Amino acid sequence: MTGAAGILAPELEDLLAVVAEQAAAAAADVDRNARFPAEAVRALRETGLITAIAPRELGGLGLGLPALVRVAEQLARRCGSTAMIWAMHQTQLACLVRHHPRSAVLPEAVAEGWLIASVTSERGVGGDLRSSRTSLLDGAAGGLTLEKAGTTVSYGADADAYLVTARRSADAQSGSQVAVLVTREQVELEQQGSWDVLGMRGTCSAAFRLRAAFGADQVLPVPFRTVAAATMVPVSHLLWAGVWTGLAAEAVRRAAGAARLRAGTDPAAEVPELGRAHAKLLGLRGQLGAAVQAVEPAYEAGREPTLGLGAQLNALKVAASEGVLEIAQLALQICGMAGFAEHGRHSVARILRDAHSAPLMIGNGRLLAANARTVLLSRGER
Amino acid sequence: MTGAAGILAPELEDLLAVVAEQAAAAAADVDRNARFPAEAVRALRETGLITAIAPRELGGLGLGLPALVRVAEQLARRCGSTAMIWAMHQTQLACLVRHHPRSAVLPEAVAEGWLIASVTSERGVGGDLRSSRTSLLDGAAGGLTLEKAGTTVSYGADADAYLVTARRSADAQSGSQVAVLVTREQVELEQQGSWDVLGMRGTCSAAFRLRAAFGADQVLPVPFRTVAAATMVPVSHLLWAGVWTGLAAEAVRRAAGAARLRAGTDPAAEVPELGRAHAKLLGLRGQLGAAVQAVEPAYEAGREPTLGLGAQLNALKVAASEGVLEIAQLALQICGMAGFAEHGRHSVARILRDAHSAPLMIGNGRLLAANARTVLLSRGER
Amino acid sequence: MTGAAGILAPELEDLLAVVAEQAAAAAADVDRNARFPAEAVRALRETGLITAIAPRELGGLGLGLPALVRVAEQLARRCGSTAMIWAMHQTQLACLVRHHPRSAVLPEAVAEGWLIASVTSERGVGGDLRSSRTSLLDGAAGGLTLEKAGTTVSYGADADAYLVTARRSADAQSGSQVAVLVTREQVELEQQGSWDVLGMRGTCSAAFRLRAAFGADQVLPVPFRTVAAATMVPVSHLLWAGVWTGLAAEAVRRAAGAARLRAGTDPAAEVPELGRAHAKLLGLRGQLGAAVQAVEPAYEAGREPTLGLGAQLNALKVAASEGVLEIAQLALQICGMAGFAEHGRHSVARILRDAHSAPLMIGNGRLLAANARTVLLSRGER
Amino acid sequence: MTGAAGILAPELEDLLAVVAEQAAAAAADVDRNARFPAEAVRALRETGLITAIAPRELGGLGLGLPALVRVAEQLARRCGSTAMIWAMHQTQLACLVRHHPRSAVLPEAVAEGWLIASVTSERGVGGDLRSSRTSLLDGAAGGLTLEKAGTTVSYGADADAYLVTARRSADAQSGSQVAVLVTREQVELEQQGSWDVLGMRGTCSAAFRLRAAFGADQVLPVPFRTVAAATMVPVSHLLWAGVWTGLAAEAVRRAAGAARLRAGTDPAAEVPELGRAHAKLLGLRGQLGAAVQAVEPAYEAGREPTLGLGAQLNALKVAASEGVLEIAQLALQICGMAGFAEHGRHSVARILRDAHSAPLMIGNGRLLAANARTVLLSRGER
């Protein structure tokens, strides 16, 4: 049931274990109260894992994709919300370090371990990342301003900075977007409604209205479409898949424990669902590992993935988000009432609730439709 | 929709294309008449692809696992039966070259491109590869004899040699097996019943009663359990998965063609099933590629895979056999009546019929149960 | 595994048994050669079952919906093609007797047991029953003519009459349709292409170009939309579901036989798939029975079903067409190689091939989309 | 989306509406705090619906199975826990009125609207209803005692009486069971652990250790196997299926609302999942209605259902428990983040959590295995 152990240096495994323990200790309380996992994020900061994706020369850990996926998996086994916050933050941080390496705030962001939220969702665009209603506006003293109604701003209340998308200008098309990194003190935040949801409750992903005034040099100097294609989509899909694989692995581990307990009293007890759940986990791991390998060369070179690679990433997102849910449900069947319980060593309730969020993060239907279009366009057969 | 192009040297791709064309030309007739694909097998012999898995020093092509999987895929796109015969034969050949390299018949077998069938199934053992009823018996002049009722002996009537499993001796346990390679002229074959089946009709896998008299040096000098674990299971699972992936890829290609045709008249036509089928194919490819990579080190070193690797191979077999069936059914939905037809460029009928054999080749339930036992035994958590 | 035995009078059960036996005797040959099941249709004529749906006062058997569904099921257990031909013919006959009871040809059609095909499909309308390109044209001597390219005209070459849809006149909208019953001698038929397909091969549903000249009184005196809503859709959906349930029941019977055989040698053998397949069959039977009951009052009164009833019929079509396929695949898993064989008492190959046609007969996606619209429109909540 | 409206007399619909409103008002609080829905149970008492299943001559409402199923559905739409408590209580009450009509406590139980819990589960019997470890023991003054460790005693802390199973005597086989109705003051209850679980949180189904001293005339005068077969299994399976259908119907209603909202802004928005969810609901309703009809004659006559009917009830339990989960998940997909929220009119979170309990209430695997055995035994073919 192990993931790719051996990918992280032993000292990193130790640091990871420290964070995981903090995350585990607070996980039940975080979930119950739908509160920010402050303890675990503090540990991420103290161990440096909060800047895992930033290159060493900028003060980060400089981890590659396989190592990052491993971290996502291991965190998720203990606290899905912590893992997802970490994964989202790495994505935003990667956008910054790769597409705006000369950003004036970057040194401080890395040194202080700023937690960066994203404000890419927006009321009225129907969940389309690549479309904005809000736009940059001229502000005082050559600066800029924007105002945006974000529908799900994960850890919005607890972030130190925000990566916000907007149309380049008031007369730009909805798809002519830029991204800008604004700091906590540059924004006025107004939470809209609460975050009392089924799972991933610690991500505190409420709606927020955000007003910001900032300098023009805080706008990332490449179009957001480049940022999204070259960094945001690949990193988020791979790390999300890592998080979901970790949840799935933990569900299988708990199911195996429950099955072992039962087998102790009845050695002939057949547990076909366990073989099924485990096989699905292995398939998911295989697909995730293959996607990491396929994406790595383009990612390391800073290139946008090809259409084919993009389709592979979409397929991974769909498969992993559905896979974790199937595996968690099989685990529930195996664990029975012990799995249905919210607590105890064979509980899979929180894992299952967290897993239900996976198919909703960018609708799978949208991704499959995009892939169908890619296939229809690629006439060449090989 | 391409598989791992670039894995084969260009001249091998050319040879492969020659065989594939022969296979394609005869495929409909082979299927209709449930007859041996003699043309394609002749082309395999002429191109040398029939000894693809044998090392160069023995006169083979010395292809590694990734290249072999590529060949299986490409053959399957044109004729599933040819691909499956080739895959099974490679498995048997690999057992011979790896576990009996000093076999007296090996040089001739490679030089002449012998086609090797396996007689591992047996009436009365319930499909358990690792269990035999028949046993070796003393024959004339220090030789040995055996008589075996094989339940499915693929291309039994057209093989040049047979890899037969049996108990080591009349008083051995059912699991104390050896394998022996007997030649066509050393056996008496009696076909039992016909091979008029749903799909993979060209494999001609009827039941056969086989009587053989042979020399003691034809018995592979290691226990069959070693042969099975180190070679037969890994090679067959990987190459079968390659065959099924090829069938699936061809189904997706045909579905894309049908969808394109329809989109021509109605550009807004949504084909969500196409995105789904393609995503499943990408997932299958990812899982297969990851399994090849995971198995390669042990395979190249001649070691038996670990329990964990064995579980991964079982998981691959289950996923690929179910995946090809799902993909073929999605393709049928997309292609509609054109897919339901037995002929035409958007037909998926034969692919679907061939795919239905996949879950039956070693029952998936048996493999999942084995995996469940592996999980129950592996207490270590990582 | 029985269906609703007891619904038919004993003498009808006897007649049905006679036909079923004829159908069974020819089924393999009909399937192999994709030829019309002439023997079974002759037996339908001789027993009077060919006019089962026609009221007694017109010379028919006057069977109600439950009895008709029973006949469909029982025929399908022996020969899917015969059952489907019978079901389609009953549908056409019901349209005639219910919507054109004064038709001049009706007495002869019933007395002679005419087999009535439908020409509702048409090239260029994308499978939409309620849309026609062809239209009625004025012919010689006050008569009418039409010419139509039907894409799938089941038993077109062997029918005695044809129920053809067309636009009412050359300047009518595509949805302003009528139906007309033309006789064999009034038409010129030209088969387009062959019918060499995966399953339901005996229905001989090739494409046909049909030219007809006929009297104006042969046009059904109500709009086709009424015929379709009040009779064609409900009768076809219920009888198709009957056919598929029969195929499913036969698959379960064969799987039970195979499982019993295995249990004979190993009494502890678990067959979870058998419980699953049987439970699905029971569910399908329940849903079918409930739909028959729900539709009966409107049907007997000659009224069009409500939107809600229409949605229930669509849901039945989708569930039964997917259910029979699932059940047949479970049966194949249980029967193993004996099920994969095209012949033998545990063969499920032909059942499975026939079942693959079910989701394609009016695409399920189209029906579910129609239901979604119905739900969106029905604001009333209870 | 309505169920079988019209089955209840209008005045009963009104009473039902009163209870449903109470249940709805408290549902969120009941769920959040995993507390007993006291308000709703009070309303059940005040309206008389608490004795719905008791015959009129005993002071009950005398409702038949179709009406009872309707009540279960309607309650479940507002509060799953209330509906499940009501369904379980009706089951226990039915056992009492049908198998011990002369019970001395029965008049008071009906008149006061006692809530009856069941203590049928027991530690150490692996979830097998028909097997007990505990047994009746001789007590003081000709009375009896028992002590039992129940693993899930729904509303154990809030019940007025308990239907407890036990072996008839200390030397009886584990399957030689009786049932006894003991009153609250006759028992000592000790709760073991808490009830903090994924869903159906208001049922408060903790483990309880129960000690009771009671009169010999409180033992039901027929073997428990008769009680179980003739009453407990049929009533519970039908009413549970009613509860789950109600949850499913509510999920579809909410999904339709969300889809309508979206369609308002984008009228061309396709919602294929809505058609799918609705079709599944209709199928479930059909199967449930058919099962009610099939069971009614035997139930009304007080006979045990045949093996075939038992299999149909098991199939219903499996289909309904899996169906509600599928439908709830489709609804979540349709509602997106609004569905993921724990509150709001398009929330499906609680429904989904409640639905996850359905497959666990008597394991589906156990029921399918029982059905497989029934099929293997029933050699008659029709």
Overview of the molecule:
The structure is a homotetramer of 382-residue chains. The first copy, chain A, has 382 residues and is α+β, with helices and mostly antiparallel strands. Chain A folds into three domains: 4-111, Acyl-CoA dehydrogenase/oxidase, N-terminal domain (Butyryl-Coa Dehydrogenase, subunit A, domain 1); 116-218, Butyryl-CoA Dehydrogenase, subunit A, domain 2, CATH 2.40.110.10; 224-377, Up-down Bundle (Butyryl-CoA Dehydrogenase, subunit A, domain 3). Chain A is built from eleven helices and seven strands. Chain A has helices at residues 10-33, 38-47, 65-78, 80-99, 106-112, 224-265, 272-301, 307-335, 337-340, 349-355, 364-377; strands spanning 116-119, 137-138, 144-150, 161-167, 177-183, 187-192, 207-214. In chain A, the strands form two sheets. In chain A, strands 2-3-7-6 form a four-stranded antiparallel β-sheet, with no helix packed on it. A three-stranded mixed β-sheet of chain A has the order 1-4-5, with helices on one face. Chain A is globular. Chains in contact: A-B, A-D, B-C, C-D. At the C-D interface, helix 6, helix 7, helix 8 and helix 11 of C face helix 6, helix 7, helix 8 and helix 11 of D.
